[in-house]
Fold these 3 entries.
Entry 1:
Amino acid sequence: MTPLQRYIAEEIATDHVEGLLTRREAVRRLALLGVGAAAAGALIAACGSEDKPATTRPSASTSPPPGMDKAVAPEPITWTGPNGTMQGAWATAAQPRGSVLVIHENKGLTPWVSTVAGRLAGVGYSSLAIDLLSEEGGTSTFKDPAEATAALGRVSPDRFVADLKSGVDEILRRVPEKPAGVVGFCFGGGLVWQLLASGEPRLAAAVPFYGPLPDNPDFSRSKAAVLAFYGELDKRVTASKDQASEALQRAGLVHEIVVEPGADHAFFNDSGPRYNPSGAADAWQRLTVWFGQHIG
């Protein structure tokens, strides 16, 4: 099992432990990933034994998520990738200061991810939310979100990196002679780390949100300034922040690690149950300042 596959499986088990999935649904989703019943039970037990403080779900916010007041409506686009046609949602800034590649969670290219591209375009960064299930026909072809997650779990990390590099090609083609950045969430945050470890040199800034690190990360071939976000309550992923910081220091990269107080995993996703309005607002402000400093 690759680190990303392991991460997806642990996320499903944790969702059950925290009451977001029934045990039956968690076992079903793990089976789609190829995790047998006995292994699923052991994984759920392990995640349930983790020392995590009791989570108080934030009250539903009546305010729009940060950046939505200026958001641009994205449009579907396609381009030629390494293995065929790639799909994505493209949002054009009125006067682009640069461009950003947006990498989705383990559910694929959902409407929420497209809004992130639209919000970034609203503050000056033309953005592409990439669909990493393009080769499977696109996220929209999966009627069961768990099937989309399982399909992502079967893809090799090398294919993801190649597809992401084609996304960087596309944003640089659409916004030439301007710096480029990348942002990703959960599974997509892990892929930001993978892209940096691959030695992609064309990114001026990178922002992984609560993403799992690759094993023994080496970012020495990257040039990006990295702003990494974690949630205080997200012990499973936040435990890797010191290792991330050490790897960034060894690579000599400009970086900052932010742990949002009182926030859990996926705190930035306003369509999900762990959304934290104050953490999301702070992260948005920091992200836009970071892009302003390192992209333009």
Note: The radius of gyration is 18 Å.
Entry 2:
Amino acid sequence: MLGVNHATSGAAAWIAVTGAMPYLTSGAYPLDPVGVVAGSFICAGAALLPDADHHSATIAHSVPIFGRLTAGAIGSIAGGHRYGAHSLIAAVAVGLSAWVLTLLTLTTDRLGTFSVGMMVGSAALMCFAVKARDMVNSWLTAWALGALFGLLLVLLAPESVHWFPLAVVVGFVAHLAGDFLTTGGLPGLLWPIMPRPPKFMRRAPIISRVWRPSGHVALPVLGDTGSVREVALGTVLALYVFVGVGHETLRWFGIDLLGLF
């Protein structure tokens, strides 16, 4: 799946889980409008994290030289693209890392105690999100917006420290779901354990496409990365995000569209 569609799917997943749109959200983890809108950017950025194992991914270009070196190191540790960084183990590790970030606090006379770790993490994820969606032209601008976002988050929504790790995990898992729907698939949820199908099942028309001889699993309804079907899904998800953010923004200002009808 393309980076832009990964970011969109992350934002859409967060709105679906936390938003208040009737019939279009689950209400599984309801938040106020600030949490829904701010979290959608964090989730969009987190949805790009699994591809940190690839040298040409969005994140690899975020910092000159260092970004590519980091991506190369992650790819080596993970065993290559779409292996370790695309597994449940990675999702758990990233979630724990996000939680640890919330514990890194700083106390000042003017601001009191706040999570500087979450501020930095949110800034980076916001930077990734706006660049992946081509909202800005340069990485410098993206980092500037990210820094402003992180600062505003700790000032205006200090309660975000409680849902920040969840937003990171939801975005990460949204990425895995997106790749599972393409022909590339995933290394299996239990990586590094990658059970292979028995030989007598490897020639079965349907099973061979879902459970590969290599141990990878996929439900390739979207086809190859960048296919027309993927672009169509990305467009629908982008529209959903636009409507969701609009709804939450109006709710932020006390406007209930349903109450007007």
Note: The chain has nine helices and two strands.
Entry 3:
Amino acid sequence: MTVMTEMISPDSFAGLTPELVLDAVESSGMRSDGRMLALNSYENRVYQIGIEDAAPVIAKFYRPLRWSDAAIQEEHAFVRELRSHEIPVIAASQAENGDSLRHYQGFRFALFDRQSGRAPETGDRATLEWLGRFIGRIHSVGAAASYQDRPVLNIQTFGLEPRAWLLEHDFIPADLLAAYASVSQQALDGIQRCYDRAGDIQPIRLHGDCHLGNVLWLESGPQAGPHFVDFDDSRMGPGIQDLWMLLSGDRADMQRQLTDILAGYEDFFEFDSRQLYLIEALRTLRLIHYSAWLAQRWHDPAFPAAFPWFNSQRYWQDRILELREQVALMDEPPLWPV
């Protein structure tokens, strides 16, 4: 998720008809058999396309205005770099000229091999260690260079900017605006305290949105284990960003899960324990950012259909309560002593 400084045009994908999607895929040299299945994606438009005498491919059409061409190509290059280290990620296919970002009638798109799999079982210690090993390998490569065209995940980009956007636009009900402004400022103050306690954490290239929905698990065969997909939100940031979203349950559950993940992670990349101060801060930033992300895309017809509960009185009441809880959680001790 990336917050823009302007509202995304409501007709961003209006011209993306089934015919155009198939023609775009065929412009890459493939011959479609006419089968097309829309996959679960809101930021972009993603389809599984049947190919004659070959396996289906995944076509991702990028939301206009969100990333520059250079930023998309930078993400593609990072994923190819990971693959060159035999890390199980799904890279965009390259055309004969080496380009992985393709253009067709004003739309930008990329093609990917289809990857099957299920969500990992986080209750299994061996699975968590396995996940940790591969995230550690991703971060080892990610730390070797920096993004030039992609932003850093920090208080400014995920907190101050989205909060300011929400307060300047007519999404929060008038009778809740003062309460949201107050609690979100308290949250930002708490986030800053967390960052101050953590100190200078070196940002690295991340997956950026490493929740279980972006990890596909294969049960058997030479490629058994986790496969990491959808690096669309990849950016610079603290390594713990790719770990905390794998944690769930109460404090004891999260302590156990993180211990198991780090048992594999530290085989390949050193974990700076000061990052533990950032877990609840990053969770709070994601909550603020998510509300702005929904609001900025509300004129896209896919969003009201998919998120009917957004922008109601109850929604903003719940967000205010949620942020109050996060303010308290950010002042609690980290999962274990640093």
Note: The chain has ten helices and nine strands.
